[in-house]
What we know:
single chain, alpha/beta, six-stranded mixed sheet, four-stranded antiparallel sheet, 15 helices, 16 strands, 19% strand
Amino acid sequence: MSESDIITELQNIHKSFVLPTGREIKILEDIDLEVHAGEILAILGPSGCGKSTIVRILAGLLQPSLGQVLYHGKPLTGINPGVSMVFQSVALFPWLTVYENVAVGLYKIGVYDRTSLSEEEKRKNIHKVIDMVGLEGFEEAYPKELSGGMKQRAGIARALVANPELLCMDEPFSGLDVLTAEALRAEVLNLWIGHQTDLKSILMVTHNISEAVFLAHRIVVLGTHPGHVRVILTNNLPFPRNYRDPEFQTMVDKIHGIIAHTYIPDEVPLLEGPPAAPTSVSTGQLFRRMVPLPYVNVSEVIGLLEVLEDKGEELDIFDLAVDLGKEFGSVIALAKAAEELDFVETPKHRVVFTELGKAFIKSDVNGRKKMLNTQLRKMRLFEILLDILHPQKDHAIDEEVALETLATLLPNENPEKLFETIVKWSRYAELLGYNADKKVLYLDTGEERMEG
């Protein structure tokens, strides 16, 4: 494709957010991405990898920390004039009818005037897109009278009424039931194939691999910590695409392999460094298996192990996602957590019970607590926290000290979320306790502590 085909482009995009503590968290790093005319582009990745942030930067709703956005080769300032957005949460105005909500898409946005139409032209455009998305007859209905699928149709109509060049869809079908999502997915594709709109391109964010393969010409797979482009795949399958077609399944399996290798690699690198005093983590700390702790609950890990036991002690990670009814990113986080505890192994994209995992799931609640306590003590992150707590008065430290320690050890993680996860796991294992009133993390010695 030539440069003239590029509608909008991200060049060397970095994005960071500053937490209330002043700690900077990197969300995106070195993102280079072109959106071409004549294509549907899918951005694929689990929750938290920066997919939505990329779309908001491209649309001009967020400013990058570094890098630039180009629109037809020129630096973008403000809102991208050629972009309309459809969000997962449609956010229709409850006091407006369907017709009035769709009309909002024609309002003047920033310095770009989309209202250079006569009232009659506006009326025709609104009715045209309402009919196009299958909402004819519901023009006077209010959002409270609509189903989830109908609300999303209204959101799509609102985005299309301004005749954008690029339609950005941020997980538009993930909040819908399976049948409604499938119907809407097919209708969006039919709008594209049938050239029923003036759209030049569609950019869609998704965590659904089959959805990306069904719709997209190119698929961008993101990595995490921070978000970065892992690989961009070209999907040359002809339309209409069939989920049961062997070539379709081959593409799905290829992406499965890439994602599994990205998020649950067979080997975890060891980061070597000179040893340091156990209470010092600011410099020289030996990071042995210092990996981010997945933000999941112990009950969810136990649920995964229960399903694994019921299904024969070994499952494909993506089949497991279907069995659990969760998006693959959530299931990968659960599998990583179980693997860190040595309850499962993840060769390729399979999840396999270990003997320890089998013993854990067969134990009663007290047995599980003891086993989890033992496994947490082996994890480098918990080793360091215990080393810090032991010499302290009352074996306790302020929450702020714990947060600063976590931010130093894992600078690309959100220390508040990591701390919350550590507290949940530790309480179940009776390893560490947390006094919310005093904001103190302490070693659980089995003695009662007053909350006041």
